[in-house]
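dumping this here before i forget
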Amino acid sequence: MIESFTVNDGGVEISPLHRAPWVGTDEALPEGIAPHLKKLGGDFFCAPFGSTEGASPLHGWPPNSRWILKEKTENYLRVELEKTVFGARLLKEIILRPGHPFVYQRHTFIGGDGAVPVANHANVSLPNGGIIQTSRKQCWRTPQNPQEVDPALGYSALRYPAESNTLTSFPGVEGEVNLSKYPWSPQSEDFVVGLDAPEERLGWTAVIRPVEGDVFLSLKSAQALPMTMLWHSNGGRYYAPWSSRHFACLGVEEGAASPILGTGENGSPNGRGVIQLTSHCQVEITHVIGALRWRGAAKVSSIEALENQLLIRSTTNEKLLVPFDLEALEA
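structure:
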């Protein structure tokens, strides 16, 4: 787990990742709670995303088991998961580039066998609300069931299942919901999936924090990870350790995980709803997160990857160029 990262942008420090209120305390947590929930927050990798493998906790062994250090320098880390994932060895690499406001990540499966839903799981802290924008999607969908089926355990503001062609108007329990503005409701637990357009190459999610004056960025290959999943965790779960106090968290989860919608691989864009592991192959998953200062009321209108820069355009016709390693998204 990347517990936190800080970007220094012109002398301003930006630390956009969330941390659950029970993390780092002496609070007694429920017996048998998954390890990733004990330290909930930051950014972690899930395989299988949204499900289990054998005796593993939710989201599989990557966020719930130990990693073995293989190599470490000032700007590079390589570790190997202590356990296997569907029989595969799993390597994790974290790369920093001097002057780049990004954390570059690569996960490599070596061998194994089976179809595995995967996703990165960044958790953004939004104590003062935020504005969510993404690259072009075919549509937005909710799964068959809400996060908590029993209303005594939690409340969801969206309809399940439901679908919309736009982020700004989604079917809700009490009318249309604008998913581009966080929070979606004063107190709810919700999950919605954006399916990338088949022709999209660079997939991006921008979460502007207007009060803090910054923007969190999540970047991926939309061909490899054709789903952007948004987890709205804002006081909507009632039982421990959530206890109606886990507010202001937005999970930005980039993945290939069509089973979360109750559909197979062919039900996802680009026919890529999961990754396929085989004993004689390697599968690489890449992902980039970062943060920048962002002033004013402008929104992000587009993000384009150039040879060694990222071009970010705003809705007020401003252009921002930042250093970026495009090869980091090429598996």
